[in-house]
């Protein structure tokens, strides 16, 4: 979980001279594919135990965040929109079911991932070739070759998933795909918006009904919805409708937190302007979550402890911000602004209190009764979701330094 210092909320995430999001995700997926390709060697030899269902689900969740929060889809880049936001959020939840519930929706998840990869090869690649034919000089040749190769490899992997080709073919395909994506990510950093699929990230707000939400608030809302979803999955497990793995939930929380760090600079200590050090930190965290997805049980406990510490840090540093916010609220004259700031202070205080309990339970499991923790998870998700709808309504960026 990441704290939010509202004074930093509107800092631009620029494509020109900043951090191009297409480059970030190319590098991120390059790391994912390279790690998976290398780990497949001992997995296929029987030295390591893997979980293909959870791995496919994690790839779908990563794709879904690109689609819903950045408008980057397998068939083209469209920018942010309400429709894509809803589709992305639905895909995240769909992938979460397969991720935290062993044996559930794994077949469906396999074909969803295959459809995304096939779309890259059968739709996006021809579109690029048509564009290249019209204006070859618009894309440097150093970018064209790995870009075409990346889409061809995506097509081959998608066909392999559909037709169940031998698994050993995935090793060279994934390693080569990862190398191509890392090369393309480096080139995209240097070339900027000139590369295909470039999506300049800005501090502009996405309209969700009557609400305007910044990227930071959208990711906070995603975390809140995921917490409520995990509470629902616990109930389904108790009713013996679907199995539930709590350690996998911690891995998914790590991945979402990694996206907050990488994309908007949100950390448990405070919010920062997005930067390469934070982007690299987010990629490392996301890669650790991917390793945990591929090799269940290997580092799940460590990631759960990390999320527990993150929650405690968020609550601790956030409480410091709340003291200043409460002082500013008392100093304001009676009126709507004062009431609104007090509302944020109260909701934030409730959220931090619940996060302390949640974090403590992750560090010292089985001390707090399961029923209590279920209520805490549900209430924390609801409080965090409410808070995500309030932060962007603050009139001035420095008016309240509160969040979760």
UniProtKB/TrEMBL annotation:
<feature type="transmembrane region" description="Helical">
    <location>
        <begin position="56"/>
        <end position="76"/>
    </location>
</feature>
<feature type="transmembrane region" description="Helical">
    <location>
        <begin position="83"/>
        <end position="102"/>
    </location>
</feature>
<keyword id="KW-0472">Membrane</keyword>
<feature type="transmembrane region" description="Helical">
    <location>
        <begin position="175"/>
        <end position="199"/>
    </location>
</feature>
<feature type="transmembrane region" description="Helical">
    <location>
        <begin position="108"/>
        <end position="129"/>
    </location>
</feature>
<feature type="transmembrane region" description="Helical">
    <location>
        <begin position="367"/>
        <end position="387"/>
    </location>
</feature>
<feature type="transmembrane region" description="Helical">
    <location>
        <begin position="141"/>
        <end position="163"/>
    </location>
</feature>
<feature type="transmembrane region" description="Helical">
    <location>
        <begin position="248"/>
        <end position="266"/>
    </location>
</feature>
<feature type="transmembrane region" description="Helical">
    <location>
        <begin position="340"/>
        <end position="361"/>
    </location>
</feature>
<feature type="transmembrane region" description="Helical">
    <location>
        <begin position="21"/>
        <end position="44"/>
    </location>
</feature>
<keyword id="KW-0812">Transmembrane</keyword>
<keyword id="KW-1133">Transmembrane helix</keyword>
<protein>
    <submittedName>
        <fullName>Uncharacterized protein</fullName>
    </submittedName>
</protein>
<feature type="transmembrane region" description="Helical">
    <location>
        <begin position="305"/>
        <end position="328"/>
    </location>
</feature>
<feature type="transmembrane region" description="Helical">
    <location>
        <begin position="219"/>
        <end position="242"/>
    </location>
</feature>
<feature type="transmembrane region" description="Helical">
    <location>
        <begin position="278"/>
        <end position="299"/>
    </location>
</feature>
